[in-house]
């Protein structure tokens, strides 16, 4: 029996998935699907948070012994973009079957950091330094923005490496996009770990305040909230959420069955959504 997941044509993030995908959590030992397909053949665009969901989900499913396959978009332009972003290569590194024949990567300065895996805080720091060097060399990035993007990405990467307990490590990427309403950087970090709810639940003082993934996310962006119980910890997500409360910036957090979005127009909005097996954080920073 094959578990087949088919996203929408414009695949932005896992919260848009339909069907029963949230019933199949590849982090659990009970996950026993023999074959897993993610079918992107009809996709006309795959945004970075969606790409990172594919990577995490398939990496975890492979870890559980499933034979995993990604069906690439028929649209060659979309395939070239994904190839240039390191999407196909990172999946192959996770032992996922990807038929990307005749798809060439194009040199693209706008892919500041292709999808990259890291496991430890030392590796997270190395990836962050690489991102800083590439931002510094890009002729379309102001010096002050280089520091802002690097610091925000660093907080997310270190948080994932230190707290996620992910069997497959964590993955991050930074891309530059030009839209009709202006250009922006998108930074995404995702892991296949225990999730925000489980992390906060370890703190006995917080247990009465967390019942679901979505209220755990609301709590996680408050000052000095930490699963460790250490009053000097817990500034990571809070600091990031405060730093992006500027014109045009946004933050999407997705963990388990909960998501929270902070935007310029809407201070914060948490809700129940489709499964992300671990935690994803996606930042959008205007130039």
Condensed summary:
The chain has 287 residues and is of the alpha/beta class. The chain has helices at residues 48-63, 76-84, 87-93, 121-137, 143-163, 195-201, 213-220, 236-243, and strands spanning 2-5, 10-11, 35-39, 45-46, 67-71, 97-98, 111-118, 170-179, 182-191, 250-263, 269-286. The chain has a single domain (2-286), classed as Histidine kinase-like ATPase, C-terminal domain (Heat Shock Protein 90, 2-Layer Sandwich).
Chain-wise SSE layout:
Elements: E1 2-5, E2 10-11, E3 35-39, E4 45-46, H1 48-63, E5 67-71, H2 76-84, H3 87-93, E6 97-98, E7 111-118, H4 121-137, H5 143-163, E8 170-179, E9 182-191, H6 195-201, H7 213-220, H8 236-243, E10 250-263, E11 269-286
Parallel strand pairs: 1-3, 2-4, 3-5, 5-6
Antiparallel strand pairs: 7-8, 8-9, 9-11, 10-11
Helix pairs in contact: 4-5, 5-8, 6-7
Helix count?
A: 8
- Note poorly predicted spans: 229-235
CATH architecture: 2-Layer Sandwich
Write down the secondary-structure element order.
Answer: EEEEHEHHEEHHEEHHHEE
Distance between termini? 47 Å
Task: Record keyword descriptors for this entry.
287 residues; 4-stranded parallel beta sheet; alpha/beta; Heat Shock Protein 90
Explain what you see.
It is a single chain. This protein has 287 residues and is α/β, with parallel strands linked by helices. It has 8 helices and 11 strands. The protein has a 5-stranded antiparallel beta sheet with strand order 7-8-9-11-10, with helices on both faces. Strands 1-3-5-6 form a 4-stranded parallel beta sheet, covered by helices on one side. The protein has a two-stranded parallel ribbon with strand order 2-4. Helix 6 packs across helix 7. The longest helix is centred in the middle third of the chain and has 21 residues. The chain is globular and about 45 Å long. It starts with a strand and ends with a strand.
């Amino acid at each position: 029996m094959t578990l087949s997941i088919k996203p929408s044509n414009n695949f932005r993030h896992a919260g848009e998935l339909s069907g029963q995908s949230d019933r199949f959590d590849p982090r659990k030992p009970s996950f026993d699907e023999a074959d897993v397909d993610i079918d992107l053949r009809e996709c006309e665009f795959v945004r970075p948070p969606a790409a990172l969901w594919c990577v995490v989900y398939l990496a975890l499913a492979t870890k559980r012994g499933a034979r995993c396959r990604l069906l690439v978009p028929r649209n060659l332009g979309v395939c070239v973009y994904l190839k240039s972003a390191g999407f196909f290569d990172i999946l192959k590194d996770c032992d996922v079957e990807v038929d990307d024949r005749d798809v060439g990567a194009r040199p693209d300065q706008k892919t500041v950091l292709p999808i990259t895996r890291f496991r430890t805080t030392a590796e997270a720091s190395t990836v962050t330094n690489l991102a800083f060097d590439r931002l510094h060399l890009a002729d379309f990035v102001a010096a002050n923005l280089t520091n802002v993007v690097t610091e925000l990405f660093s907080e997310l990467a270190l948080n994932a490496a230190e707290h996620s307990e992910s069997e497959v490590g964590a993955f991050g990427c930074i891309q530059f996009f030009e839209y009709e309403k202006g250009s922006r950087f998108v930074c995404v970090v995702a892991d296949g770990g225990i999730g925000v709810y489980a992390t906060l639940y370890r703190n006995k003082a917080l247990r009465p305040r967390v019942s679901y993934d979505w209220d755990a996310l609301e709590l996680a962006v408050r000052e000095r909230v930490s699963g460790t119980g250490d009053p000097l910890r817990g500034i990571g997500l809070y600091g990031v959420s405060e730093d992006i409360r500027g014109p045009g910036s946004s933050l999407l957090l997705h963990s388990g069955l909960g998501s929270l979005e902070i935007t310029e127009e809407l201070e914060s909005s948490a809700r129940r959504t489709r499964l992300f097996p671990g935690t994803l954080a996606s930042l959008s920073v205007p130039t």
